[in-house]
Write a structure and sequence with these properties.
533 residues, single chain, 18 helices, mainly alpha
């Protein structure tokens, strides 16, 4: 999976004074870069090995979705709270603790022989990553008070994230090409321990507790709301949309979301400033971030399933397309920065989201039996260019429409809603694709000329594990009969998933054109300055 974390650092709070004078500022930057590289590796790691994990664990489609989202959920909803914790109690302690928590999670994943254990390990590692993202950035800004030094520190941080995104597919693909998938998590766990030791030995402690406080009620209610929503979306195709647990999860989502809004409205230090949404352009920008990032990461998840699960490509072969997508953005980043200041975020977002939409439709047009890289190169390059345009401009679009004093909160809020969109991508695409595939298979099995015994076996596997389990199950000679049926059904489902994600990108482009517009980045509309007065 790919993530906008790699190029869009969240707004850092006041850095606060560095406390441990003997520690090297260079050491702090090195440790911070290691920490954020580790977090990004964990986020991208499953993309190249989804197929191997599914076949090894015989995971159902919903379990495979949970393996990715178990990491994404805490990274999305806990980052703001961990940022405050670092400001209150020290970024060095938080990075050391977070890296050790991530190491524990990778140990759980590395010893997993069931989907449930792997999901648990991913969730623990995601909690660690949720702290590493903001704390690594804050401790670098704390030791670089001068603008020139801070610019170099932030450049190093961004480069480390880019490197993590590029390393992860090669790391996972290369290891799993010659060993079990558990080794990929084990090696990442070793890197987490190295990161913790480096942070402890090299990092200068810093904090900035003034004016910072925790919003536990808001944190708890938004986490429960998101988990309830994801449970309903992911489990719906397998458990039935009308089943009691799924229906209750959607009710719980509404209840917890209402509670979150009520809590934030009354809080003196909310994690989310609801009054920002009174600014029409900011509200539109937030909606654009959710919809657009849902479209982008949903498309990336769809590509991962296509390569690794449906086509049975090797982990290293699966890794290469993601290297293409990830590698384009750092290559064109200097051009993107100049474009942002010259034309503003609006044109970049419109062009970027439309590029993503076209790339996903192009990918959909490539026949499922086509496994060569050449056929995919066009949509992959266009996807990478669109990704770069979007991540370079998406936060600037939000901060450009709010009063100057609220730009930090606007950037943090955009980061939160963008990550929520990314979390929903795999869940919704998986639900749509697997639901359609299961429906088609139910009908096609009846006319496949199977014996009653064969039909009973196939139906039992389909009902127990879903279309992906039936596609990868070792059923002897029966697998040869079922292969074309399951591949066609899955291609139908996941191709329709790409229709959904491309439509989301088009909607995001329209929102950007209408509400963000084509103002240069230096222009701040009067609406923003007066809305919160």
């Amino acid at each position: 999976m790919v993530s906008t974390h790699a190029y869009d650092p969240p707004a850092a709070p006041s850095p606060g004074p560095a406390k441990d004078a003997p520690a090297s500022h260079t050491g702090t930057i090195v440790a911070g870069c290691l920490a954020v590289c580790l977090a990004q590796i964990g986020l991208v790691l499953p993309a190249a090995i989804n197929g191997v994990m599914q076949r090894t664990l015989q995971a159902s489609g919903s379990e495979l979705t949970w393996i990715s989202d178990a990491f994404l959920v805490p990274a999305a909803v806990l980052a703001l709270t961990f940022g405050v914790l670092g400001d209150l109690y020290g970024r060095k302690k938080l990075v050391v603790g977070a890296a050790l928590v991530a190491a524990i999670g990778y140990l759980v994943s590395a010893t997993s022989h069931s989907a449930a254990q792997l999901i648990t390990g991913q969730a623990i590692s995601g909690i660690g990553a949720a702290a590493l993202f903001p704390a690594s950035l804050s401790m670098i800004t704390a030791v670089t008070p001068k603008p020139a030094a801070r610019a170099k520190g932030l450049a190093s941080w961004t480069t480390a994230l880019s490197l993590g995104a590029l390393i992860a597919p090669l790391l996972a693909g290369g290891i799993v090409e010659h060993a079990s998938f558990q080794w990929a998590f084990g090696v990442t766990g070793v890197l987490a321990v190295v990161t913790a030791v480096a942070a402890w030995l090299l990092t200068t402690e810093s904090s900035a507790p003034e004016g910072r406080s925790l919003d536990w009620p808001g944190q708890i209610t938004i986490a429960l709301a998101l988990l309830s929503l994801l449970y309903g979306i992911i489990q719906g195709p397998s458990d039935g949309w009308g089943s009691a647990p799924v229906a209750l999860s959607f009710v719980a989502f509404v209840v917890f979301l209402a509670a979150f809004l009520a809590v934030e409205h009354r809080s003196t230090s909310p994690m989310l400033r609801l009054e920002l949404f009174r600014i029409r352009a900011f509200a539109a920008s937030a909606a654009m971030a959710v919809i657009g990032m849902f479209g982008f990461l949903g498309g990336a998840y769809d590509l991962s399933i296509r390569l690794g699960v449906i086509q049975h490509q090797s982990p290293l072969q699966t890794a290469v397309p993601f290297l293409v997508v990830q590698g384009i953005t750092p290559f064109i980043w200097p051009l993107l920065v100049r474009l942002l200041h010259r034309v503003g975020p609006g044109p970049m977002l419109v062009t970027g989201f439309m590029s993503l939409a076209v790339a996903q439709l192009w990918l959909r047009a490539v026949p499922m039996h086509e496994t060569g890289l050449v056929a995919l190169l066009g949509p992959l390059v266009l996807n990478g260019v669109g990704f770069g345009l979007v991540v370079a401009a998406i936060t600037a679009a939000a901060v450009n429409v709010v009063p100057t004093g609220l730009t930090g909160m606007a950037a943090a809020t955009t980061s939160l809603v963008r990550d929520l969109g990314q979390t929903l991508g795999p869940a919704v695409v998986g639900a749509v694709a697997l639901g359609m595939a299961a429906s088609q298979l139910t009908g096609s099995l009846a006319g496949a000329g199977l014996t009653p015994q064969e039909h009973g076996i196939a139906t039992a596997v389909l009902n127990a594990g879903g279309p992906l389990a039936l596609h990868t199950a070792d059923l002897g000679p029966l697998s040869a009969k079922l292969g074309p049926l399951t591949e066609h059904a899955l291609a139908h489902g996941y191709n329709n998933g790409l229709l959904l994600t491309s439509a989301a990108c088009v909607v995001a482009a329209v929102v950007a054109a209408v509400f963000i517009g084509f103002r240069p980045i230096s222009t701040r509309p009067a609406e923003a300055e007066g809305s919160l007065a």
